Amino acid sequence: MSKTALVVGVTGIVGQNLAARLIADGWVVYGLARNPRLDTAPIIPLAADLLDLGALKATLANVRPTHVFFCSWLRQATEAENCRVNSTMVRHLFEALPAPGKLVHAALTTGLKHYLGPFEAYASGTPPQTPFRETMPRLALQNFYYDQEDVLYAAAKRHGFSWSVHRPHTIIGHAVGNAMNMGTTLAVYASICRETGLPFIFPGSPAQWQGLTDVTDARQLAAHLVWASTAPAGRNEAFNVVNGDVFRWQWLWPQIAEWFGLEAGIYPGHATSLEERLSGAGGLWRDIAERHGLQEPDIGRLASAWHTDADLGRPVECVTDMSKSRKAGFGGYIYTPDSFIDLFARLRAERLIP
Prior knowledge:
Elements: E1 4-8, H1 13-24, E2 28-33, E3 44-47, H2 53-59, E4 67-70, H3 79-96, E5 105-109, H4 113-116, H5 144-159, E6 162-168, E7 171-172, H6 182-196, H7 206-210, E8 212-213, E9 216-217, H8 218-230, E10 237-241, E11 247-248, H9 249-259, H10 274-278, H11 282-292, H12 305-312, H13 323-328, H14 336-349
Parallel strand pairs: 1-2, 1-4, 2-3, 4-5, 5-6, 6-10, 7-9
Antiparallel strand pairs: 8-11
Helix pairs in contact: 1-8, 2-3, 3-5
């Protein structure tokens, strides 16, 4: 059967990598974003604001996908607003599709805040015991992931398509202008340290420095999304998705430093805000970009230090169980140092870092 995908949030770290995977696998791919790039053929760009139902209906009037991949969110000032805005975007999508009853499957990407709580209550209270498992109950907190899931479940029941929910940990992969991008943020940080002689110090908490953790390569997530959307075992299930290995930052940090020709700074024993360290670096980055002929002089389109601080500053261990996916037949695996090194090499090849 011919497969046609609508990737919602195609300019983000998830959407970009997913669209590339789908194209490589022979899918017809529509890419929806507020401001999609127009030079990404054979991806068919669609421009619309998910909060503007009328405009969204007009944009999707002639689009009849077999599969929808929802990979978008908008950060709001409070979790109550996150819940309202982000659930509305999912609801509007299914209301705007001209033939939702023709859908075969819809996949939603969320994340580990399902287990850790929203940013305003991040890892507070008593978080669940690791490893995080899909059978764990929802937290007694407002969480826009829960609201998005509920909208998805209701639409699937109403229109008769299957669904899947995908919960990655921190996503490592290529994207520019993304709101949550640890890999590129660390590449910018390391590049600034190399240019200025500042020590390359791990900015996170002792729990993250010393404890076991994991991450999700965007390519692994893309493979997982395609698998769950096409395999019978992926239907109507929520899955964790990580690389498949675990590591400690005190082990990985020197490897990142070495790739950039740096010595890893001595860990001070406490978190040091990367957002504060990079807060005045906009002018410096423009100078670095000019001297090295880089493609992106705006540090804000590369680095999301606030998000890296949130993830690396967590006071709890974060390890994810993938047994459910493995038992269902997904065999993907990526060695975590390769996630970072491959990304750094691509950023340098594309002249995004010196």
